[in-house]
Write a structure and sequence with these properties.
178 residues; alpha+beta; Trna Endonuclease, Chain: A, domain 1; seven-stranded mixed β-sheet; 5 helices; globular
């Protein structure tokens, strides 16, 4: 006879969201709006805007370090301590040699000027350009955060995956030098 804990644990495991990474590995995220958006980021945003990109980090609502490739980050000059406030997804856009830092917003804020600076400091060792993206499930979700989104960043919406909204600057989807 199964214990109550084992039965509930099995049910939770069955409801997890499977995500296939670009390197062939599969991770499982807990169900919930945040992780639904993270899966859409990995499946849609990454396949459209960072084709053949290498996923280096994925956060889960329960386990912040759901997937982490410290060796790949080290190879591009980035050393991360586990207490660093990571974005939700980090992808190396190999073709363009950019590091794409993605915040998935369902309850916490976007890449605002303060967060952009924090991420720049966290990834300061990167030998490649940094690109900042805020991801939302739908455009109307951005309204709450519109005044906070930093210039020289991108916004992406899962409901319209083939479109990006660019916040100023001379480039569309690219790193900015200070």
């Amino acid at each position: 006879m199964k214990t109550l804990e084992k039965r509930h644990g099995k049910e939770r495991e069955m409801r997890q969201i499977p995500v296939a990474l670009s390197n062939g590995k599969e991770i499982k995220l807990l169900p919930g709006r945040q992780n639904v958006l993270v899966k859409k980021v990995l499946d849609n945003l990454c396949s459209l805007y960072t084709p053949a990109g290498r996923v280096l980090y994925v956060s889960d609502t329960k386990e912040k370090w759901s997937y982490f490739d410290p060796n790949a980050l080290r190879a591009i000059g980035v050393e991360i301590e586990e207490h660093g406030k990571m974005p939700d997804v980090v992808v190396h856009h190999v073709e363009k040699d950019w590091l794409v830092l993605i915040e998935a917003v369902t309850s916490h804020g976007p890449v605002n000027p303060k967060r952009r600076q924090e991420l720049k400091e966290l990834f300061a060792g990167a030998k490649i350009g940094l690109v900042f993206v805020t991801a939302f499930l739908e455009r109307r979700a951005m309204i709450k955060y519109l005044n906070d989104i930093s210039w020289e960043t991108e916004a992406w919406f899962a409901e319209s995956p083939t479109h990006l909204l660019h916040f100023n600057g001379k480039r569309f989807l690219g790193p900015y030098e200070d």
